[in-house]
């Protein structure tokens, strides 16, 4: 049985814990809470989309409508634009970008983890999308509609996965420590690039709509895991630095 004093001391524990989860700037605060919520939502979306593609082929009816829309709205200038912009989701463009950005982040931050996280985001996006492609084995849209050469399975879109995972992680690493407006602009810009890359995959008939949505969900899962790892690493480093900064307790005289 607990006494009144103990009950009172336990009272503010939960509000204090909740306040810590919503505290901005703290490694285990709002950013970690947002990453966990994003992970849960994207994991659910990825599981639902994958199960729908595997178990319910009738979902392709909606995909066909979207494909028909993009095919019916093709023009010469849009085709040139789509063929150009879609490279922003290709490893041929993204790998040089993450290498150069990683070197810049290292010179700026002098910490290895922010410098390599964009490369880890790209590598994981490529590996996980290829694994799921192999397991699902979904056919691509009819080749008669293709406007670019594609190969392999369709689900999920590797370009969509790589674009969101890589540009999103780059934006988050560059945005850290900047004013709120700059952070918003960087994250919005990365999301816009990923969105446009996804549209180009639909326009070029390289993927179905569910392939692109699945790619974005997979990117959200992978980036969320990386961000959670990053934040927990920062929290552990901060705790270690705090312990080292505390003065040693004076020894009692014998």
Task: Describe it.
With 254 residues, the protein is mainly α. The protein has one domain (32-54, 64-233). The protein is built from ten helices and no strands. The longest helix is centred in the C-terminal third of the chain and has 37 residues, at 209-245. The chain is globular and about 70 Å long. The chain starts with a helix and ends in a 9-residue tail after the last helix. The model is unreliable at 4-13 (pLDDT under 50).
Alpha-carbon distance between the two ends: 40 Å
Which structural class fits the helix and strand makeup?
mainly alpha
**Domain count:** 1
User: Biggest sheet, open or closed, and with what strands and sense?
Assistant: none
Shape: globular
Please estimate the helix content: over 70%
Order of helices and strands: HHHHHHHHHH
Number of strands: 0
Kindly state the mean pLDDT as a whole number?
85
What is the percentage of strand-forming residues? under 5%
Count of individual helical segments: 10
The poorly predicted ranges are 4-13
What is the C-alpha radius of gyration, as a whole number of Å? 23 Å
């Amino acid at each position: 049985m607990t006494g009144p004093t103990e009950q009172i001391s336990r009272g503010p524990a939960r509000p204090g814990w909740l306040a810590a989860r919503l505290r901005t700037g703290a490694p285990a605060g709002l950013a970690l809470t947002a990453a966990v919520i994003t992970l849960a939502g994207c994991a659910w979306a990825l599981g639902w989309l994958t199960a729908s593609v595997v178990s319910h082929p009738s979902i392709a009816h909606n995909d066909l409508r979207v494909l028909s829309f993009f095919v019916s709205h093709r023009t010469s200038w849009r085709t040139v634009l789509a063929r150009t912009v879609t490279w922003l989701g290709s490893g041929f463009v993204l790998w040089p970008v993450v290498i150069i950005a990683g070197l810049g982040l290292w010179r700026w931050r002098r910490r290895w983890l922010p410098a390599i996280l964009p490369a880890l985001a790209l590598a994981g996006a490529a590996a996980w999308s290829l694994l799921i492609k192999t397991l699902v084995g979904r056919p691509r849209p009819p080749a008669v509609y293709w406007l670019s050469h594609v190969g392999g399975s369709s689900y999920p879109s590797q370009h969509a996965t790589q674009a969101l995972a890589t540009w999103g992680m780059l934006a988050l690493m560059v945005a850290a420590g900047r004013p709120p407006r700059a952070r918003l602009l960087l994250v919005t810009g990365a999301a816009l690039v990923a969105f446009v890359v996804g549209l180009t995959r639909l326009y070029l008939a390289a993927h179905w709509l569910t392939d692109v949505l699945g790619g974005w969900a997979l990117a959200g899962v992978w980036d969320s895991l990386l961000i959670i790892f990053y934040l927990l690493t920062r929290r552990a480093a901060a705790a270690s630095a705090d312990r080292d900064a505390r003065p040693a307790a004076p020894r009692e005289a014998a």
